């Protein structure tokens, strides 16, 4: 009788897939200056093997990301998914329950593949009303806690209130802001990369 012993192998995270909207698609700036492109450079410089696939589309909603997810997971088989969605839903006043359901679906289906998830949250301007803006913010916190995600509460932390870091529309970050966005994301992403290198 032949006894085969399977030794544990070192697991290295696969691709990093970014599913986002204009904040990650490089709206209003050169794509080369966008934070996903800067992430590619940082990973290479630091010797990480992961490739970055940016599937972000300007104007994307959580529902749109949900609809595209199956094909993206099948094509790229990511080890890590960065979700940066919901801002357009909130700005359109979409029902909170719908936003939550769509993001929840994206998270559950991704986790089912064995990939990890980083959630990049968003805040709405105060003119949308205290109740709606609070409920919107709570969606991200609730989902991150429920699924134990890598969580960045506000992707534009330290950026949104500095005019020189924003485009004239006051909604989108400028090229100068992109390294700061990457630093915000990196705080949450790097621990996942380190887990896979041990």
Mind explaining what this structure looks like?
By secondary structure, the chain is of the alpha/beta class. It is 45% helix and 11% strand. The chain contains seven helices and five strands; from the N terminus they run E-H-H-E-H-E-H-H-E-H-E-H. It has helices at residues 22-25, 35-45, 62-76, 87-91, 96-111, 130-147, 178-197; strands at residues 16-20, 52-54, 80-84, 116-120, 150-152. It has a five-stranded parallel beta sheet with strand order 2-1-3-4-5, sandwiched between helices. Helix 2 crosses helix 7, helix 3 (62-76) packs parallel to helix 5 (96-111) and helix 5 packs parallel to helix 6. The longest helix is centred in the last third of the chain and has 20 residues, at 178-197.
Number of helices: 7
- Numbering strands along the chain, what is their spatial order in the largest sheet? 2-1-3-4-5
Class of secondary structure makeup: alpha/beta
Order of helices and strands: EHHEHEHHEHEH
- DSSP helix fraction: 40-55%
Largest sheet: 5 strands, parallel
Provide the residue-averaged pLDDT.
Answer: 92
Beta-strand residue fraction: 5-15%
Assembly annotation: single chain
User: What is the C-alpha radius of gyration, as a whole number of Å?
Assistant: 18 Å
Q: How far apart are the termini?
A: 35 Å
Q: Give the total of beta strands.
A: 5
Give the overall shape, derived from the CA principal axes. Answer: globular
Low-pLDDT sequence parts: 1-13
